[in-house]
Input
Amino acid sequence: MNQEGNVRTTEPELLGRNREITSCCHHYPTPYRNAKVLKETAQLFTVLALILLLFRGSTTLAQELRIGHIQYIGTMDPITCINPVEVLFNGLMYPKLYQYSGLEIIGQRVLLVYKPGILSQVEFLAEKAGNLIPTDDVHNASLMKCQVAEGNNWITPSLDIFPILADDVIHTLGIIRNPRTYPNLMVLKNYIKDVRGCPDPLQLEIEFNRGATDFERMLNFGIVFSDQYKHGIRDRRRPLPQLPYSGTGFYYDIATEGGTNERVLTRLQEVAGGTGNIQQVKFRQYNNYEPLLDNFQLPLSHPQALDMILEIPPEKMNDFFGMEGYVFLDYAIDAFYYIGFNCNPKRNSSRVFAEVRELRKAMYRYTNIRLMLKEVYPSGNIVTGPFRNSDLAYNDNVIVSPDISAAEIMLDIGEAAPNELRYGTNSGKLEYLGVVQQFVLIVPAERLDMIRVASSFKGRMEQIGLIIHIETIPANQWYDRAYNKRNFDLIFDEFVYHQGYERVLKMFYFEEHDEGSNFLRYRNHLVNQQVNFLLNETDLINKRGILRTIHRLLNEDAAAIFLWNLPKSALIRSQRFETDNPFWRQLRDDPDPVYFFRDIKDLMIVP
Output
């Protein structure tokens, strides 16, 4: 731990984190650690061994080997698919097959647990003297025969019903074995040599390259339906208005654009029971999906079209709980909340942040992040850097500072720069070069939750002699003032970087003659050096180590007060078309084709 008490600096930067998840039987509020994964894996194999023993008979042991009800886990990679509603498309379109029992987020994997009942029989065979004979030695099995249970159907968006056959399973395995589709499931390519059908349309055979040691991992798939599914996706799209690109990533903000977009917002507010229930509507676009969809190399859960997102103030969240036919599910996105310092040395009101980094570090250390999170949000994960704590780039060895007294912090500040930074004899407030320090913290006026956090932060800083003024600004003006005019001392913000780490690194990368994306005007030559290393590095393990080094450096230097990553909540229908709630009924039955969530309620409620 360094002298500030923030960071252990001897972390193994280049070590990769264990990302292999083999079990999803319980709900854990925090990401798995290696020990937890090893423990769960051991428990899983223990259960497997007991199942095998139970199926041993006194005679013809191998022929009696059957595993009756295997629990399936559908997987998706939130790097390419961050929308759990699209995962639950399975459950909505194919309710007989995908009756989900839970959703968990573990590391970089989102696991959707399905109820058992797809494969009713599994039999293993091993090669002996040139022949395949039944065996109970799973580790040395070379072939697995499967029986798809009868009575499982899937439903198209047009409500046509089709039986689930072995061909559907074969098609699924063919898709997710493709490394361009599911890089995280390369284990399938390593273990599976071939997948083929049988004369019976409900039977299939899976041939192994080497044993079936991890056969339960190999069965972690959801069923994908080829042509019917592709056409179904096209059919379920709705005509959407052409929206001007907002220039803020890949978000379209239609709440403030006017025209047709304003009409959409007004209509949604009407059916939601007033303007206070819905504060903003956005369209989110995923680019370059069309060629992939034509070649059908996408996982089933990939968001192929535009998602409509409704942002609802946290104080209204309770109004949406308990509605019949709907469930809330949490998921995580690549984002972090932070309080940023304007480090522009030419800005008189905040240049102290650029010239006396000890003040930034003291403010960071004295921010009671745990308390602020608990006061405002029902859940969330504290982060110590610009990545969410289940991210590959996240450095676990950087720890959250323990709570510390105001007297200790004030003493540290006084010793940091005694000639320039001191507490005024008369004012009792912190002075820099003889001037009492007062800082303006800007917050979006629509985000009442952020205003509450800012108020808590202000009260905390007053205890160490800092004067903070909170200025609430309408969202569009806040954005312009923060990112374009850069007219603030402190900023409370959520930084989202769905597509890679480039945006978050640009946020802290300083270029002398080009302000770029570094609107905080933060500069650290060591961080710049590491970013340059990263841009020239091709090895994934080395990249991960560099990212974790950047995480550590930003924390040590208090580049910002890193706060937390909040889970988002998705409101999902658990029943098709049945609801007595007038709000959802009006949305469902509205003839205007702009409402694209008529078949699938991809309604996002974010805190």
Remarks:
- The chain has a mean pLDDT of 60.
- The CA atoms of residues 13 and 545 lie 5 Å apart.
- The domain at 34-234 is CATH 3.90.76.10 (Dipeptide-binding Protein; domain 1).
- The longest strand covers residues 119-128.
